[in-house]
Amino acid sequence: METANSPSFPMLATWQARTANIPQPVRRLLGFAGAFALALILFSVVLLALGKDPIAAYEQIYLGALADDYGRSEVIVKMIPFILCALAVAIPAQVGLVNVGGEGQIYIGALFASVVALAFGDLPAPILIPLLVVAGMIGGGLWAGIVGILKAYISLNETICSLLLSYIANLIVEYVIHGPLKDPGGSNWAYSARFSDNAILPMFGDTRISLGIIFALVAVGVYFWVLNYTRWGYKMRVIGGNAEAARRSGIQIKQYIIMTMIIGGAMAGLAGMVEVTAIQERLRGGISNGYGYIGFLVAWIALQRPVGILLIAAILGIISVGGDWLQIGVNLPASTVNILMAFILFFILRNQGMQKKEA
Amino acid sequence: MNPTNILPSGHKRIDHAELMGIVKRFPGVLANDHINFDVKAGEIHALLGENGAGKSTLMKILYGLYKPDEGEIRLNGQPVVFHSPADALTQGIGMIHQHFMLVPTLTVAENVALGMKSGLVMDLKQVKKRLVELSAVYGLKINPDAYVWQLSVGEQQRVEIVKALYRGGALIILDEPTAVLTPQEVKELFVTLRQMREQGHALIFITHKLYEVQTLSDRITVMRDGRSVDTIANNGVEQRTLARMMVGRDVQFQVDRPVVPIGEVKLSVRGLSATNDQDLPALKHISLDVRAGEIMGVAGVSGNGQRELAECIAGLRKATGGEVFLNGKSILGLPVLDRLNAGLSFVPEERNRHGIIGSFSVAENAILQNHGEPAFKRGMLFNFGAIARHTDDLIQRFNVKTPTRETPIKNLSGGNIQKLILARELSRHPAVLIAAQPTRGVDIGATEYIRNILIQQRSEQVAMLLISEDLDEILALSDRVAVLYEGEIVGIVNREDADVEMLGLMMAGVRHSS
Predict the structure, then answer these.
(1) What is the ipTM of this complex?
(2) Is B352 on the interface with A (CB under 8 A)?
């Protein structure tokens, strides 16, 4: 408390005094932009240290992700798993849970969808695709539900539990693609058979943007609506805001812990379903590409807010797509952009911490 | 006072500290409006005012936590500027907060040494030696090797005082230091404070308790709405006068208790036993009945089972034995929600931690338990119009001072938060109301208001269990008083037969034979 405003840095104090009259939303936006700029600057230093030209690198990211229709469509393709995995984190976070198990929930969702796609490939698409959606959501929800039940009934730490279950999920998928679901016609590759055409999600035009984007947008819309307008959302916010007050008001906290984990996991499972049915067209290892973790970044940078999730998913989508071009343009591994994403997270969290203190 | 300007703690005395024309604005509030305030060595200056009067803001300015928008601080005539509490500390200004800043897992000596400038290796021996010296000079009994978690609240406060002295506090600000103490501990604290005054310390004592101001202080400054009403010398000033200065109108100290017909038993506790958080027996075969139109006071020194009693009835703690009946029906096996629906309301002791969600609006807090009521629903959705009307009605009927119903409730004063909680609990028309410390930390005006509401509910045949550590409150409101001591009921006496002295003895475990 008492260190809250302690102006140990006189410059900072003057700065705070000077900005005190700017309305809060504007200040928040400015702070966000500032944090973003700082991350870009620090990343430039890293690039310089690697002997690369930062301007060229940023130009490459721009050219790759925003300069043409293809790049822009690829950003939207990336946004699908980012948004869904962000919801997987944001929904449990409303009741105070930290779900870092998005990765595992993606894999199990993908596995369930794949089993259905391979078993019922003959069904017509209008029937099969809803089935796949449900299967993916059940898979992810089940995997996260385990965490929720353990948390609710034996107070097991949900963060560690969800993280560890991700490794198990990954290994289950590895086993399945090396064993039961291994493509009989695929020489020795460890992946399942290709799904029938009925199981492939429809795409928009000749892009790789699938029906998945509609799932993601609808999910965000429902999330916004439930959170702000329904009694369930109200109770979730009560629990997240003050669990003890919630308990004293007769709210069934355990039910909400389990339900929010299941629904969150279902979102990640849906992301896994979209990945196998729209991008890979079969089940294989390594499909997630870290989406679970990027979703975590998106949710926390956006403070779990629906509009924020869309915005941040777009920004990280741009960085992610542009990053793939760094390899070609300035000869850097694509994963270099992960450093940039981490910097953004650090500065944004720092910024949020400061704003919280001011409030 | 000793003649040199060095205090027994080895630090320089502050002969005169002045706050001159202090102005501090917060968005929408003028917290301090040209305040003049001063304190001298060897003086206890009480700063009296209701919550939100600006006392804390003024003291935070003196302690370097806030910078004033206008005005200046002078120490011994010299203007000073504080950028942080560290600056204030080096100038000899210390502050003892209402909530202690101690690390429970460390010893007293380690806590005192914490944050002090030292070499790589802490010289704890030296610290202990100084602590022993200081406790001798100031008559503060403390054991430097005791762990803080082992200490009582009063002892922890002593550690805070020694810490402030050790760090060179010549001027010490005490923020509502008696709020957490038992009457006995308050007496001991006053002895210590007088001792410090004799030694030449300057003391500022923030409070809203009139009795303490009368007993302890040399001068009194009363604040109201961000202004200093007056500074007066304490030569036999009357409580009534102080109350009027503080509230701005005459205050009614005594509540009128109309004669109310007593109805049937609404709440019946039979042989109730329970354990506390450490799994030790906290309630031992408690039995009591509360009837409609009756207020049953529960008195006792804090920690003698009051909290456990309330929590067992409300369903927040498992009972290890016994029965609780509400309207004749056993409720001990029911979850919280069913008990609420059966006609129970509960005003929790820790209202900010247990009664509200601080970041939520007043309206959202007003429907915390009954958001499922048909009137507030429209299918899966809320009926926001009905909720708004309901909230406005509560705000108006219970005189809750809030800018709007959409204001985050944490921005309201303690008294207004309590009024809203009470409004919410009573809007469900309970058969039984448990009110735990309903006026603790609440300003005089709101206290008066809340007590009147409780009496009015009594007239409306609510059966009430009033848990309070304030004996005056117990005696002012209760029809009967049950005294808890070490988890047992020492006795239940009628209000007409009880007085403070008798209850005090019972609170110490002396059985009342009636």
Answers:
(1) 0.73
(2) no
